[in-house]
Amino acid sequence: MTDSHALPLKDALRQACRDIEASIDALLPPVPGDESLLIEAMRYAALNGGKRLRGFLVLEIAALFGAPREAALRVAASVEFLHAYSLVHDDLPAMDDDDLRRGQPSTHKKFNEAFAILAGDALQTSAFEVLLEEATSKDPAIRADLALALARASGSAGMVGGQVIDIRGEGKALPLEKVQRLHAMKTGALIRYAAEAGAILAGLKADDPRREAIIRYGTDLGTAFQVADDILDTTASTEELGKTAGKDEDACKSNYVSLLGIEGARKEAQRLSEQARQSLSSFGPQAETLRALADYFVERRN
């Protein structure tokens, strides 16, 4: 297999996307019987497009520290399961009420609300199941560290907690500090985890300066991603985004654009991207793809 460090970013992303989706397909095969429709809904949510940026982060950082690619693909699939669950639930009528995801009908529109809820629930538990299986790592401490970090990133102090702040902030003028906290939890925590997971899989301990540098990188990358997302929500079309554009404005939500303006938000995204790049200064040319990814996060069009 070609070393992704030697590939241009777009080629590395394309290769990783193929490999991650093959891993998802293998970990979530179709089944006969009463639960077949549930698995079909899970596969629809997990395999229905997407750039696999979180999974790509896992692969690149695992490779940076010499972790086996097959194990990294399992962790990448796990984080994509967790991300897919969050999107399925986010699109539900009780949440953001969006009928479109990645240019296709949302899971609750393709199936129904009950199956969408259950598919999301099952994807969430599958994410942890994959991490805790011995095939991910023979070291139980590494498996436990991966699962604990994902639980913290995705629970009440992370993604779900951020969603609560988001819901409660509808129709309110939130200050910048609260918007920053909201998105650090709702969006940034899972991106930060994806970066840290590659280091965990390679056996780096919590106090290892290299793992700390990767966490800083992932933190800034997660915030930069959300700032860019807010810009796209204002400037891109529904066709470009693959989901309904202008949702924040319609729901009267405060975001980086409403608080900083388009140009101010663009400057903030660039600042965060550069800060993320600086966190990689000690890693040399092997981290060049990760540096390019920091630029891509703020320059993307969907």
From TrEMBL:
GO molecular function: metal ion binding; prenyltransferase activity
Source organism superkingdom: Bacteria
GO annotation, biological process: terpenoid biosynthetic process
A single GO cellular-component term on record: cytoplasm
InterPro entries: Isoprenoid_synthase_dom_sf, Polyprenyl_synt, Polyprenyl_synt_CS, Prenyl_diphosphate_synthase
Cofactor(s), by name: Mg(2+)
UniProt-listed Pfam families: polyprenyl_synt
Keyword set includes Oxidoreductase: no
Cross-referenced Gene3D superfamilies: Farnesyl Diphosphate Synthase (1.10.600.10)
Keyword vocabulary terms for this entry: Isoprene biosynthesis, Magnesium, Metal-binding, Transferase
Family affiliation: Belongs to the FPP/GGPP synthase family.
Protein name (record): Farnesyl-diphosphate synthase
Organism per entry: Bombella intestini
